[in-house]
Design a protein that fits this description.
559 residues, 4-stranded antiparallel β-sheet, 5-stranded parallel β-sheet, globular, alpha/beta, 15 strands
């Protein structure tokens, strides 16, 4: 990328300036190259001269002049200037910019890819709601963030596995089974009481009635505990996970693996991990329970692994599960996408990594904040249909998967967000996803119209992109060239919210180009310019489709 190349050139210039005596010998700080906030300051800028003033014992302006004097030539650099109090600004060469249209067209669907991952194996685990009910809209943010990050990391050169962790063990599953049994018995006209703290949602009633219609009194004729386990398994496998899979598929989310928590106990992983923790003196028997000594490893407090009842707690499964991820399956990096209510679990997870002899930095716990649904400026807290939580499926029915994905990505992960249903329904340029998709549809329309006028891809294949020198053309190319930087930034910072904002900027830039520059001209004198502009439009289509694809949002040909 240009930023990296500029960084290398500046580093070479500093070293050469020191060899030639323009600068004294000193250990230069790391060179940072950034995009200026104002276009008047060029395409890129560095403050290395300001950072070096104390070390070099020279004024920043003098240091900047010495660096610029020794800067190696590069075809992409058009203008270099120094701005007070010592910034070095770079403007890209117009001819080089125009040639990048061909580079984008040649890259096609690979445009925007970078290779910071260098093939490292990363697992992104997201979703992973308790399989005791349908996904609510808050979990929609979880799956959209996780899936988009997986897309971005794949584009950044990582080998990515997408995983859903199925919590199909423990007391909550037993409670789920007992709740389902009670509703199932009621559906068949039998008296039955829900357990205390049981699941009371309408969906439990619906699922129980479906099971009763399918199986009759089969489960009433079984031993109670056996029936509870059988109904829990059926409810998880066919009802809860069936609902989750359906919602995810509507969002275009396909997992590589669905991992069963129960398997950790049946395949010996849990017992093996407990043995390792005992050998490392990380466990302690206290008050009839087995405790993990997390405080000794950087946790804020010790944690119960096995309750006094003999039942493993959630954290026991977490340790075994992450042993499986890192040791058994050998992932280099694991990212868990968790809700805000798990923020306090981060220290104990890092302590767990140390207990397993693993670098805590290999585990990233990405904590996202809550979603508030809004309609006509008012909070929407309950389902209109069921009077309970708002299911993700209801919002998908209402505004569609594209709007759901785009809106749930629009805010930084660590900030709470409002999801404006009224805006998401709008078929106007006020709706950001509509605005961006409309830009793609407009591009497709331009290319169709051109083809109808005889401007097929073969006809403009020999177009000379050096003719692209109008300010709006060059601004559009500049904006397209930001995509690899956006991918890198989103991957390094695990910040997918940069994608929808970039998409809106790109759409606006294309609309401005279309306003200022006629693409297909009937004047024979403009034939060569038409060819060049059609190549630019094609490159724009590739870039916009690419960023939409990374977000999991469709790129319509017509609207």
């Amino acid at each position: 990328m240009i930023k990296d190349e500029l960084t290398t050139l500046i580093e070479k210039a500093i070293k050469k300036a020191q060899r030639k005596g323009d600068l004294p010998k000193y250990e230069s700080p790391p060179v940072t190259v950034e995009r200026p906030k104002q276009a008047a300051y060029g395409d890129y800028s560095t403050n290395i001269a300001l950072q070096s003033a104390r070390l070099a014992r020279k004024s920043p302006m003098d240091i900047a002049a010495a660096i610029v004097k020794r800067l190696p030539k590069a075809d992409f650099i058009g203008l270099v200037d120094i701005a007070h109090p010592g910034f070095i600004n770079f403007t890209l060469d117009a001819g080089w910019l125009a040639r990048q249209v061909e580079a984008i067209r040649a890259a096609g669907e690979r445009w925007g890819n970078v290779d910071i991952g260098q093939g490292r194996r990363v697992q992104v685990e997201y979703g992973s709601a308790n399989p005791t009910g349908p996904l609510h809209v808050g979990f929609g943010r979880n799956v959209v963030i996780g899936d988009t990050l997986a897309n971005v990391l794949a584009a950044a050169g990582y080998q990515v596995q997408r995983e859903y962790y199925v919590n199909d063990a423990g007391t909550q599953i037993q409670l789920f089974g007992r709740s389902l049994y009670a509703r199932y018995a009621q559906a068949l006209g039998r008296e039955a009481e829900l357990p205390e703290n049981g699941y009371r949602g309408q969906y439990i009633v619906d699922w129980a009635q479906e099971i009763a219609a399918m199986a009759g009194d089969k489960y009433l004729r079984m031993d109670y505990e056996e029936a509870v386990q059988a109904l829990a398994d059926l409810g998880i496998r066919e009802k809860a996970l069936g609902s989750v899979r359906a919602d995810c598929e509507r969002l275009g989310i396909i997992y590589d693996h669905w991992f069963s928590e129960r398997s950790l106990y049946t395949d010996g992983t849990f017992d093996h991990v407990m043995s390792l923790l005992r050998q490392g003196d990380h466990l302690e028997l206290r008050e009839g329970a087995v405790w993990f000594k997390a405080a000794e490893l950087g946790g804020d407090k010790d944690e119960v692994l096995i309750r006094s009842t003999g039942e493993p707690g959630y954290f026991a499964s977490d340790i075994a599960y992450h042993y499986d991820k890192f040791i058994t399956r050998g992932f280099d990096w694991v990212i868990d996408v968790w809700g805000a209510d798990h923020q306090g679990h981060v220290p104990r997870m890092k302590a767990m990594m140390r207990a397993l002899g693993l670098d805590p930095e290999r585990l990233t716990l990405l904590i996202y904040q809550l979603v508030t649904l809004k309609e006509a400026g008012e909070d929407v807290r309950l389902s209109k249909r069921a009077g309970t939580m708002v299911r993700l499926s209801e919002v998908l029915d209402d505004v569609g998967p594209d709007a759901v994905r785009f809106f749930l990505l629009a805010n930084a992960i660590d900030s709470q967000m409002d999801f404006d249903l009224t805006l998401a329904r709008e078929q106007s340029q006020e709706n950001p996803v509509y605005y961006v998709q409309y830009a793609h549809a407009r591009i497709a329309s331009i290319l169709r119209h051109a083809a109808e006028q005889g401007w097929t891809a073969e006809r403009y294949a020999d177009g000379d992109v050096s003719l692209l020198n109008h300010p709006s053309e060059l601004t559009l190319i500049r904006k397209m060239l930001e995509l690899p930087e956006i991918v890198e930034m989103a991957a390094r910072n695990l910040a997918p919210h940069h994608l929808p904002h970039y998409a809106q900027d790109l759409a606006a830039t294309f609309h401005a180009f279309y306003r200022d520059c006629r693409v297909v001209s009937s004047d024979p004198a403009d034939e060569e310019l038409t060819k060049a502009r059609l190549k630019l439009v094609e490159a724009s289509k590739i870039t916009l489709a690419r960023v939409l694809g990374l977000m999991g949002v469709s790129a319509p040909e017509r609207m």
